[in-house]
Structures are given as C-alpha cells and as structure tokens.
C-alpha cells in the first residue's frame, strides 16, 4: 500500500463533513487533468468538484496534473465531474479538461487513519503519472 500525501496542503482548507462509512461505500475516480498552471488553478478545480452534491473528498496533485475524487455514484455521475472541471475555468483565460483514467470502489483507494481518510491507490498505480505515487 502506498500513501499519497498532498504536497499542496494550503489547498486543503475547504472541505465537507465526512461520513466515513458512507465514504468507504462510495466510488473513487482518478482523473488526468490538463490546463492547470498554478495552485490557484488546482484550488479552482478542487472547489468546483467539491461543490457537487455527492462529492465527498478531492485531492488535486498540481505537478502531476491528477485529481482523485471520492463520490457517491447514486448522486453524481462521472460526466458531471468532468463538466465541473471544465467549468472551473470560467474566466475566459483558462481551459481545464479532465479525462477518466480509472474508477474503483472507494474502499479500495482510501484508508482511515486517526479518523481521517488517506488516499492509498493500490498497485499497480496508473502508469501515466508515476510522480503522484511516492
């Protein structure tokens, strides 16, 4: 098991109350991102995803251009996640895009430690982003 720590902790200010049991009963998706240039871009994508009803947890790895999203598949569809990423670039300057690389059950990708969820995407990790997995 590999734990994935967010290098940009300052982007983790916003959040939603978590029901850990519901979280582990949901789904998770690995998104490849394009168009992100800075921490502000990553924060905009994260906030856009978290604003969706049914999205519980988001981690954006800016340098690797990756987002990991835990969500309730009965309340939000993957297509809505992709649309939220695109809509996060609503300033007429940026253009964000997301592509689904892998979807799994959240219990396969998250571990609870100290009452907090940690991403632990199981091996083999998606091959196009080795820098996100340390």
UniProtKB/TrEMBL annotation:
CDD domains xref list: HMA (cd00371)
SUPFAM superfamilies xref list: HMA, heavy metal-associated domain
Species assigned in the record: Thermus scotoductus
InterPro entries per UniProt: Heavy-metal-associated_CS, HMA_dom, HMA_dom_sf
Domain named HMA: residues: 27-93
Protein name: HMA domain-containing protein
Keywords: Metal-binding
GO molecular function: metal ion binding
Coiled coil: none
